Structures are given as C-alpha cells and as structure tokens.
C-alpha cells in the first residue's frame, strides 16, 4: 500500500454499533480601518462593540419562566434536553448568556472582536481569530471555553490525517478509495468529510505515524505562548481500543483525543501560511499589540502538500459540509473543514477556516457545544456571518503593506 500513485484502495462497509454518527461532513496588522469608510475610527468600533456585548440579538426560542425557583430549574432542564432524529439524547444547552464575561480584550482588534461577538450571538461556543502570518490572536470570544481542556475534534482531525498520509507517501491528491460502490479521492473526501476514507488512511498509517505527525502539528501541547489559563488538550500515548474503533476511529472522528480551539487554529494557520507553526500570542493591552513580535515554534514540511488539500477545504465551503458559510458570504474564497460528533450527552460542532483574499488571510475557528442545534454546519454558518461583518467593515480592503514580519519572527530559543 506504500507509494500508491493514482491507485485504488478498497474498504469494506464499516458499521460501528452504538457510536454516534458524524455529519458527512499576509493580512499584516488587522483591523486597520480604511480612511473614508463608514466606520472611520477604532473608537467607533470599540463603542459599537460595547453596545453589542450589552445587548446581543438571538434567534433562539425563549422558555417561559415559572414564578418559583424550582419551576425555573425544571424549565431550564427541559429546555436544554434535546433528542436527535436517531434518538440520541443531549443534556447540554446549545445556547448561553454572558459568554463574553471575563474576556480580556485590551489588546484585541476591536473590528475583529465585534464581528466575532455578533456572529456567535447566544450560541454556546467560542470564536477564535488569528493572523496566520504571525500567530497573533486578533480576538477570542468566550476565552474561558477557548482556553479549557478542549473537546473531541470530530472530523477536523482529518486535516492532520490528510497531511500525515501525504507526507508518508500513502496517497496523492488523486488516490482513490473505494467507498461502497463508488470511489473517492482526497478532495471529495475532505469536502464531504467521508469517514471510511480517513479510517482507511489511519489504519494504513498506523498509530505510531499518526501520532508522530499529530504532535508535529501541535496536538497534545500548548499552542500559545504565555497565555494565562491555556490547557494542552490530550493526545493518547497509545491506540484506543479496537472496541472503540482503534486508529481508524481516531482518524475519522478524533476518538480519544481532546483538542483545543487554539491548537486547531495554529494548525490551520500553518496551512494558510505554507508551513510555519507559530506560537499563538494574545496581546492583553494596546501596548502589547503595538510591540507584538512573532515567535516561531517550528517549521513544518508541508508547503508542497498544502495545494493537495486546499481543493478539498475549498470544496467543503463551496459544495460540501461547510457550505453554510455561503449563506452570508460569497465575496472571497474561504477554505475550511467542519466537524460534528457527540460525547456524554453533549454534541460538538467545529469549523476551522481561513479567508484567502488578494490582500492576505485570516484564520477563524468556531467551536460549539450543546444539543441538536449544535453541529459543524452551524459553526460554518457562524464563521460566514463573521466574514460578512469583516467584509462590510472594509477589513478585506487593500491597505499599505505592513513591515515584513517573517524577517523579524524569532524562534523560541532566541527568546530565552
């Protein structure tokens, strides 16, 4: 099975009883407003953001509020309990209030933050925006959740697996895998998020190689540099039990893995910039934002591979599992990957993406948790609303080229 070039790999039907089914699933310094645009000053953006965070709109249904405290608790429990079409019961609400409480925003880009807050609304989740050419975090909405221990990555793990399989010569972009009566190549498998395709790749790679590449791409370690409260997630030291699907299930659903939004954002940033894995940094004051210096974690040998996965990521948005981006935003190319799965009464919805424009790129990661209203395509819809707001505020407009930061980026060793 090694060095297959335009080969056909055959897989049998894989049915794992009792397991939840997933949904088939270089901007320089950001937020510099264009003179003469409708939002002409950063102060106005900050005022708009303050008003928005005080009074955000929501399209969720509103539960009634009984007069006594016990009644309120019963109503809350009933409102959060949802049942999927397959009969799976969820006990976590897809909606939350005050998700921005405690966020440290002094060094964030107010235009980006405003767009992220408005796009998330009252969904129970977090939005992360990154400048991929530097690792600067432009905004994190719901920092408590974003910096937590993470969650199962669901189908977003397929990005790591695809890069690993390409790196090891297991496949090329054109390699086809037989899925039932048809065949799929990498582009279609990423766009449609085909689980059998990636289970096959995982078994062919084996746990040792899957784990090696996952750690190279930043899983199982802190993605940030000196970000207070960040946790490293979990990557298992050995293959999960065959009863849980083994390495195949790890490579299609991320079973047994806990990934954070920052880890996923760092990986997608490396894809967007051609292979530099930066330490993510979150300025907490305006002074830190002004004095920001990128720090390189390591260089990934993926530049020749990015073109082989980009069509699949673009396909996810244009015709695949992430097409809800296009509900709101069609003006620029967006490449992304969705993820949907569930665990212990909570459903997770992921969407990791970057906007590829003539004047640069921005990475957006949306992570949601809850019940039946929560899934990867919903996260993609939120990302689309964020891109829409950024576009409407001239974020993607041409601007003077910034000082080339690649020349000033320092490896971690130089920081000691």
Task: Provide key terms for this protein.
5-stranded antiparallel sheet, 416 residues, 13 helices, alpha+beta, 3-stranded mixed sheet, disordered N terminus, 13 strands
The percent range for helix content is 25-40%
Structure class: alpha+beta
User: Which residues form runs of ≥5 with pLDDT under 50?
Assistant: 1-8, 10-41, 52-78, 402-407
Strand content: 15-25%
Based on Cα principal axes, name the global outline: globular
Count of discrete alpha- or pi-helical segments spanning 4 or more residues: 13
What is the CA-based Rg, rounded? 21 Å
Strand order of the largest sheet: 5-4-12-11-10
What is the tally of beta strands?
Answer: 13
Cα distance, first to last residue? 45 Å
What's the SSE pattern? Answer: EHHEEHEEHHEEHHHHHEHEHEEEHE
Largest sheet: 5 strands, antiparallel
Q: Please tell me the overall pLDDT.
A: 84
Description:
This protein is α+β, with helices and mostly antiparallel strands and 416 residues long. Helices cover 33% and strands 17% of the residues. It contains 13 helices and 13 strands. The protein has a 5-stranded antiparallel β-sheet, sandwiched between helices. A 3-stranded mixed β-sheet has the order 1-6-7. It starts with 7 loop residues before the first strand and ends in a 5-residue tail after the last strand. The model is unreliable at 1-8, 10-41, 52-78 and 402-407 (pLDDT under 50).
């Amino acid at each position: 099975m090694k060095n297959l070039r335009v080969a056909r790999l055959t897989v049998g039907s894989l049915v794992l009883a009792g397991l939840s089914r997933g949904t088939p699933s270089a901007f320089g310094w950001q937020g510099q407003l264009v003179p003469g645009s409708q939002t002409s000053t950063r102060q106005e953006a900050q005022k708009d953001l303050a008003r928005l965070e005080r009074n955000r709109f929501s399209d969720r249904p509103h539960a009634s509020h009984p007069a006594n405290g016990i009644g309120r608790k019963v109503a809350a429990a009933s409102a959060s309990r949802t049942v999927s079409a397959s009969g799976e019961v969820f006990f976590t609400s897809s909606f939350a209030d005050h998700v921005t409480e405690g966020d440290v925003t002094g060094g964030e880009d107010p235009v980006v933050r405003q767009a992220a807050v408005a796009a998330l609304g009252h969904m129970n989740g977090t939005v992360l925006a990154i400048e991929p050419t530097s690792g600067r975090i432009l905004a994190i909405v719901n920092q408590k959740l974003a910096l937590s221990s993470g969650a199962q990555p669901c189908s977003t793990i397929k990005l790591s697996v695809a890069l690993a399989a390409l790196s090891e010569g297991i496949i090329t972009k054109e390699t086809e895998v037989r899925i039932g009566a048809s065949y799929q190549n990498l582009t279609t498998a990423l766009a449609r998020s085909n689980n059998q395709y990636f289970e096959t790749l995982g078994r062919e790679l084996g746990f040792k190689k899957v784990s090696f590449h996952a750690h190279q791409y930043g899983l199982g370690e802190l993605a940030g540099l000196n970000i207070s409260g960040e946790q490293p997630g979990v990557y298992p030291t050995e293959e999960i039990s065959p009863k849980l699907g083994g390495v195949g299930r790890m490579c299609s659903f991320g079973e047994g893995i806990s990934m954070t939004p920052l880890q996923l954002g760092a990986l997608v940033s490396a894809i967007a910039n051609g292979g530099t894995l930066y330490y993510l940094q979150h300025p907490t004051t305006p002074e830190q934002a002004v004095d920001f210096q990128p720090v390189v974690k390591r260089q990934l040998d993926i530049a020749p591979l990015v073109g082989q996965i980009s069509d699949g990521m673009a396909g996810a948005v244009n015709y695949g599992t992430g097409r809800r981006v296009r509900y709101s935003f069609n003006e620029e190319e967006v490449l992304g990957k969705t993820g949907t799965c569930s665990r212990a009464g909570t459903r997770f919805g992921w969407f990791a993406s970057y906007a590829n424009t003539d004047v640069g790129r921005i990475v957006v990661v949306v992570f949601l948790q809850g019940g039946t209203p929560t899934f990867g395509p919903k996260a993609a819809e939120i990302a689309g609303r964020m891109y829409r707001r950024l576009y409407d505020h001239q974020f993607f407009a041409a601007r003077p080229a910034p000082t080339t930061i690649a020349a000033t980026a320092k490896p971690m060793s130089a920081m000691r």
